Amino acid sequence: MRIIPRIGLGVWQIPDGEIVRNAVRWALEAGYRHIDTAMIYRNEKGVGEGIKAGNVPREEMFVTTKLWISDQGYDSALKAIRASLERLQLDYVDLYLVHWPFADEEKTQEKRADTWRGMEEIQRLGLARLIGVSNYTETHLEEMRSYAKVMPTVNQVEMHPFLYQKALAEYCATNGIQIEAYSPLAHGEKLNDKTVSKIAKKYGKSNAQILTRWALEHGFVVLPKSTHKERIEENFDVLDSKLETEDMKTLDNLNENFRTCWDPY
Ligand code: A2P
């Protein structure tokens, strides 16, 4: 069974070239073994170079990329993964995700089924070890039962205390789908929240570390993004700070359906 390292570096909005190369290299030096990119982030090339520079054995690494909306469809999916692998300079990714449930055109339901057949073929060919989805709602996941031979291993969604998607998390847990939390720091927009600050003070941790820890406590894989070495290190240094049940409840109650990205519902 393929193990997914629980903390990964998210690289959305990190420019290609030196900036992303450095971020990946610093992450690997800090102990990360999981990097999460996507075709549409336009930094797969730099991510691949950063991984190479990090010199970590390939089998220890866990690399994710994603299929963009315009690449939905059976043939396009196969073409897209090959292009991503070429940019990443890898023979396979550990996880390939359908980035969004909708396509560029009208027949999105048919497209989803076609795309997923492509994803299953990608896995069969060994181009991706695991396949999954991103931004899928319970409805999209239920619909998959009608066309999927292999159900997704992962659903990567926006998740943090200010957008605690409890029903979706429970649905995924019941159905054996791992939640990966993107924008776990609410895109940096809630880092000065008073309640988070109070809890951070109690544990002697930073606010970012409390938000990262919250996701881990819920059993989510967590993907904080940073371009700064010290923050990349800080976000990984959360393994010794178990939050008490009461504090978890307080953080859960911060939910206000605050989305920093598109709403798939
Ligand atoms: P930067 O990349 O300049 O470090 P999310 O992962 O939720 O999308 O949040 C990313 C945002 O949070 C970015 O703006 C990032 O800025 C910032 N950030 C990441 N880690 C930390 C940290 N430890 N402390 C403060 N801000 C952080």
Protein architecture, described:
This protein is of the alpha/beta class and 265 residues long. The protein has one domain: NADP-dependent oxidoreductase domain (TIM Barrel, Alpha-Beta Barrel). It is 41% helix and 14% strand. An 8-stranded parallel sheet has the order 1-2-3-4-5-6-7-8. The site of adenosine-2'-5'-diphosphate has 18 residues, from helix 9.
The CATH architecture term is Alpha-Beta Barrel
Give helix % range: 40-55%
Query: Given the structure, what is the number of helices?
Result: 10
Number of strands: 8
Strand ordering within the main sheet: 1-2-3-4-5-6-7-8
Task: Name the CATH homologous superfamily.
Answer: NADP-dependent oxidoreductase domain
Low-confidence stretches: none
Any idea how many domains? 1
Bound molecules: adenosine-2'-5'-diphosphate
Secondary-structure-based class equals alpha/beta
Give the overall shape: globular
- CATH topology description: TIM Barrel
Chain-averaged pLDDT:
96
Major sheet: size, sense and barrel closure?
8 strands, parallel
> What is the H-and-E element order?
EHEHEHEHEHEHEHHEHH
Query: Mind telling me the CATH class?
Result: Alpha Beta
Supply the key terms.
10 helices; TIM Barrel; 265 residues; globular; 8 strands; binds adenosine-2'-5'-diphosphate
Write a compact overview of the structure shown:
Helices cover 41% and strands 14% of the residues. The chain is of the alpha/beta class and 265 residues long.
Write the layout of secondary structure elements.
Elements lengths: L8 E2 L7 H13 L3 E3 L7 H11 L7 E6 L6 H15 L4 E6 L9 H17 L3 E7 L3 H7 L9 E5 L7 H9 L3 E5 L11 H10 L3 H11 L3 E3 L5 H8 L8 H8 L13
Parallel strand pairs: 1-2, 2-3, 3-4, 4-5, 5-6, 6-7, 7-8
Helix pairs in contact: 1-2, 1-9, 2-3, 3-4, 7-8
The structure holds adenosine-2'-5'-diphosphate.
